[in-house]
Amino acid sequence: MNALDGKANYFPYLLLLPALALTLFIVAWPLAETFRLSFTNSSLNPVEEYVGFKNYIKIFGGKFPAVIVRTFYWMFISVSLKMLVGVAGAMLLNCAVPGRNLFRVLIMPPWIVPIAIGVFIWSWMYNGQFGMISGIGQWLGIFAGPFEFLAFRNSSFYATIVTDVWVGTPLVTIYLLAAMQSVPGDLHEAAWTDGASRFYRFRRITLPLIMPAVATMGLLSAIWTFNSFDIIWILTEGGPRGSTTTMIIDTYKTAIARNRYGEGSARAVMIVTFLSSFAAFYFYMLTRFAKRAMNHGEPTS
Amino acid sequence: MNMLKFAAASMLVLGAVSSAQAADKELHMIQCGGQDWGGSFAEKHIGEWEAANPGYKVNLEYLAWGQCQTKATTLAAAGNAPALAYMGSRTLKQLSKNDLIIEITMSDAEKATYAAPILGTVTAGGKIWGAPRAFSTKALYWNKGLLKAAGYDGEKGPTTWGEMYEMASAIKEKTDADGIALVAASFDNTMHQFMNYVYSNGGEVINADGEIVFNSPQVVEAMEFYGTKLASVAQPGPIAYDKAKARPLFLAGKSGFLVGPYGDSARMKEVDGLEWAVGPMPHGPSGESGTLLITDSLAVFKGTGVEEQAVSLAKYLTNPKNQLEFEIATGLTPLRASAEVDAMIATDPNWAPFIDIIPAGGPEPFATDYQGLQDAINDAIQSVVLGEATAAEAVEAAADALEDVK
Fold first, then answer.
1. pTM of this structure
2. Tens digits of per-residue pLDDT, B215-246?
3. Cis peptide leading into A240, omega within 30 of 0?
């Protein structure tokens, strides 16, 4: 209603229509279709039938629960490392050292280089015969001979994590650096005047003030890492013996490589469910931080 | 007034062009690889076919190897199939079972132009589902210098698995190199490599009656040889190697043997100082020298309205003369015997082990879920290489898994 003349004003809603249509077309419809397909036996066969919860029962009766556990473990280790390295990197880049701007630029290449190219280079670095890592390891006496990182269950699992951390850390670092730069300098000066050590100032001033940013980045990073496909696919295609098969890899293999669209959709629905809970938690945290900031007059991130 | 005349004339010209275009029926063709992969010959032949078939225009779409097959399959599943597409022949059974492609009928004279096992790579249920377009066989390359250093004359390669293992062991012990560049990664080439040994030992995955016979003594022997004996004299960690990573080992003189297609010889010729030779696959205790016959085919999709013309185009592109031009341009193994192929062997005797072996070759296993079949066999190989199962256990487990995908 227009407050002045008492007539309804639909113009703002009209302006929203294109965005609404776009969202319905590229988000809502594919999502609804995925849910629908998950209850069918859809495959290359043009005739599809509804099969109830059969696809869900089938995936939980097989190897999928182990894949879910592996996915969470992979995500947990990877995100933890990204956050640790990211915080440390942001602290270093925040120091007043000569050439600081150069270092800030130099940290970006892993994030800027196309993932396929970066990961392809990593696949050769992990090679035992020609790769740098095995070569250095042998030179240092860590390995007796060439070591193939992608040939064994555990080493390939952690190798994919290391590459994911390499790709994902620059963004975390830059984001947290921006948060650190928003911490008022006079708080540090006051603490320094009172004799607080560098570590004490970090623990009691910097860390609490950047915690909203850390939480935000941690959650966003978890969402991206959960769905990380290209790194694992290029390095191992989910092998050896499924040891690097995460939910997204399993879903791709089922739905696209094996053309089992119904079963693949059931897996995709599981991914959507998990990611939706992450997203819900993310928005809950955002709201909480925003409320706290309003109460205390603090920056939100 | 002049403006009006100009506009009217433009409309007439545009209308004429549009109606001419509308008269042309389009054949959407998906080709894997870039234009540089025999594209100039394919385009020349397509042009000839168009000239002989007025009213039909071929829309040739080149796609990267990694996505061409997926796109053609997805388009077909979505009801928007291309008229014809370059597909791995291993997918044809699945596509035919789902009623997405049509049979390619061939006369007896046409069939007779192929060596008998080649059509086996495109035949399911007694029907031919694709026109073979690209063909590959495998043979054993060896490094003559390393064999000499290991105490052999180097000119003669192994003919049996026993000899092969003995030579590879000697190379591993007496030189800095490994016996063989072995692949066991989670990629399609691992299964392909293994199948060379299966067919060289009288084994099969699926027999002519469609039954899984993977758990035969011949396959167990092949698995034991590949996953245990060869792995013990290969480079460390073969599971980290697909063919793209194994080949450099041989080129760098780091391994004594490599199983590969004829195309690998071109790369070897470029390496200064690399002394190499090539011969047929050694055979196991229960069979004769064989190889895996891999073909890619032109498949004609159903429901496009131009199926008849698509079959005609597929046959034109793969007729003996055009196919040979394409093969020479791309370095592929010839599909048919001919005087030109004899001349090719005379010019380069390295062709002989790849062509002479064709009658003893076996087709890529045909399954309704090819990816499932590949995963089951690769998992069996990896379980043996990692020492997590014996050859017999791995083969038995794979045979069970294959029942679901045959």
1. 0.86
2. 999 999 999 999 999 999 999 999 999 999 99
3. yes
Q: Check B100 against A44: CB less than 8 A apart.
A: yes
- Architecture of the CATH domain A54-296: Orthogonal Bundle (1.10)
CATH architecture of the domain with range B139-290+367-403 = 3-Layer(aba) Sandwich (3.40)
- In DSSP notation, A123-142 reads HHHT-TTT-HHHHHHHHTTS
Domain ranges of chain B: 2-136+294-362, 139-290+367-403
Q: Which of B353, B238, B297 is nearest to B101 (CA)?
A: B297
- A chain contacts of residue B187, beta-carbon cutoff 8 Å: 237
pLDDT of residue B16: 46
CB of A37 closer than 8 Å to CB of A27: no
B241 chain-A contacts, CB cut-off 8 A: 148
| Fold category of B2-136+294-362 in CATH | D-Maltodextrin-Binding Protein; domain 2 (3.40.190)
Residue A205's CB is within 10 A of a number of other CB atoms, namely: 17
Domain boundaries, chain A: 54-296
φ, ψ at B255 (rounded to 5°): -145, 150
Query: Which run of H or of E encompasses B257?
Result: strand B255-260
Could you tell me the CA-to-CA distances from B16 to A195, B22, B23 in Å, in that order? Answer: 89, 10, 11
B28-39 pLDDT, tens digit each:
999 998 777 877
DSSP state letters, B101-149 = B------HHHHHTS-HHHHHTSEETTEE-SEEEEEE--EEEEEHHHHHH
ipTM reported for the complex, 2 dp? 0.82
How is residue B190 written in tokens? 């691992």
A201 contacts chain B (CB < 8 A)? no
pLDDT in tens, B175-212: 999 999 999 999 889 999 999 999 999 999 998 888 99
- pLDDT for position B13: 47
In this complex, how many residue pairs, one in chain A and one in chain B, have their CB atoms less than 8 Å apart? 88
Decide if B141 contacts B158 (C-beta within 8 A): no
